[in-house]
Design goal:
Number of helices: 2
Structural class: alpha+beta
Oligomer: single chain
Distance between the termini: 66 Å
Strand content: 25-35%
Largest sheet: 4 strands, antiparallel
Order of helices and strands: EEHEEEEH
Number of strands: 6
Shape: globular
């Protein structure tokens, strides 16, 4: 007997956020879509990496902060130090 396991995830669409913004900055502000039409069901295989999301308590109810992956922080600090030395 074959059993196929199908794993799905719910993705909430972010407005004005792409991964290049996260690659350029350690911390990025963005907004999540506010209604049900911004939710998508996707295969777990299509999820590349987790994303840390924190509510922005100074913004509106849909405003959030994301932090770049920890293993990428060294390139941000190297870039920052290089700019200071120039």
């Amino acid at each position: 007997m074959n059993m196929i396991t199908l794993c799905m995830g719910v993705i909430h669409e972010a407005k004005n956020l792409n991964y290049s913004k996260i690659e350029e900055n350690v911390i990025t502000l963005f907004q999540l879509g506010g209604d049900e039409k911004h939710h998508y069901i996707v295969s777990v295989d299509s999820i590349v990496a987790p994303l840390m999301v924190i509510p922005n308590f100074n913004g509106d109810e849909h405003c959030y902060i994301t932090v770049a992956p920890y293993n990428n922080w060294n390139m941000y600090f190297n870039r920052f130090i290089s700019k200071c030395v120039e």
